[in-house]
Amino acid sequence: MNSEGGITVKKTVGPMLIFLFLAVISNCKEASQKIDLGKKETLETVAGPSNGKPVRIAVGGMITPREGYAYYRKFLDYIEVKLGREVELVERDSYSEVNELLKMGEIDAAFVCGGPYVDGHKEFGMELLAAPVAYGEAVYYSYIIVKKDSRINSFEELRGKRFAFTDPQSNSGKLFPTYMLSKMNETPDTFFRTYVFTQSHDKSIKAVAQGIVDGAAVDSLIWEYADRTNPVFTSKTRTIMKSPPHGIPPVVVGPGLDPETKEALRTVFLNAHTDKEGREILRHMMIDRFIPIDDSAYDSIREMKEWIAGQDIEKGPGDLN
How far is residue 210's CA from residue 24's CA, in Å, rounded to a whole number? Predict the structure, then answer.
């Protein structure tokens, strides 16, 4: 296994495939500029203890497509105004980095996937803060997608093909398809001819649309967002499998965050849909509102992890623990 331009490539991949894959993602490295919310003085604030320190919130590139990233930045500007204290955006390319920062207390909150939440909760007590309701649900799915004109019509038909995962800790982009393989007494190493980690769902969608890989596992929320806002790549793909529902990717905090700041943050998230500015930002994020969510919402993810861990199938280095 080796790394090229931030993509983990497993098994033997020809030079042309690597070149093409890098070409696909090269345009995804641009950083969005911070957007001024404007009219900040009109918003009622929710005070939390500052101690002169900013609130640091991580948004990974894998949690939202590039087209929607600017609105996450805008939402953090909104949080800053509502808290009445500085909010810093922290950008990371992998869930493992975000989890480590939360564990060490170097960030205060983060938008993460269900898989990293389950891992972080077990390892160091990561806590749920709130969860979005999107498209009327507080759940999401893993989509297994192929190119629209592909002859592949089932997950089983991806045997011996090229496949794209997202992040090794992602539920929709890694855990669910690995669980499906485990139920078939297979692993990514034994089933696929080759596979890659793209580090974001929109990159995986592009890779399928452009025929660089034969299939991919992607987050339904991100596929649906892209399909509604800029379907240039989603229109060239189709879904051949949809997972059962799983607890939606939550907003989390580290265990060391002071209670006052935690409750102030929770108040901002849970009430963002009740004022005009917050509602407008959430609309662009394709989020209806934020709600409280219970840890049990992520039990289906725990069950998949436990199933895989309990199998005697030899795991390759790219597989989940």
Answer: 8
